[in-house]
Amino acid sequence: MKRKERLQQILNKEIICYRKIETGLTNDNYYVETADGECVVRCPKPENQVFFDYKHEAKVIQLLEPYKLDVPVYFYNENTGLKVTQYIHDVHTFELPYIEDAADLIKRLHHATIQSGKRYNIKEQYEQYHEHITKFIHDLSPYEHYIDDVVSVSSNWCLCHNDLVEGNFLFGSEGNYLIDYEYACDNDPCFDVMSFLTENNIMDTPNRNRFYKSYYGFIPEGKLLKKLDIFENGLNVLWCAWAQMMYSKYEESIYKEIADIKYSYLK
Description:
about 45% helix; Aminoglycoside 3'-phosphotransferase, Chain: A, domain 2; 2 domains; globular; Phosphorylase Kinase, domain 1; alpha+beta
């Protein structure tokens, strides 16, 4: 079925125009205009659905609705992850000038102290990614203990996003948003803190301190800094495995580049 026909079938409306939004590695996202207005349609790639619990994402979206963190959701299919949301004009995804705004969004999510009832298990997630790698780029076995280290220090469970890549932030004059909760479940907030910094390649001390001051109100040291280091190492192992799995499936250079970057940070 052609793309336009598929989108018209989803919306059950005649489409005036549409275009693909070039963000997202696990979904195909489209801007769509109909006679009733504009929206964004998220179409999960079928081969990736095994990795997500869309019924849980539906629950998370409902839990977060009073906090106005996400863009308004018009439709959600909890069996397929198909989602239709409001189109927000004149927004930007994450860049360094928005680091304080990003910290505020993450802090608002964590300070809501929501419990979704499902805990993130980094060890199970890593093993799931690893078993799907058929084209190995880097041997992670010397670093797998970093995953166990994360498990041993995890505490203070609350709802976390768990996928704070640049495209999941929207910043605009009418408001800022944190979107796409496919990975969201209860976790240690340090996971999100270090996921944000590592996924957006914020490695320099001045910009990390900007984020820390906005999120914590101070620059971490002592036990907290050590805990953050543990999460950083574990996340580099996790996302290196994810990137190798994705490269095994698609053989696209972007995934090899991600795997190389994450591996280079392991120490």
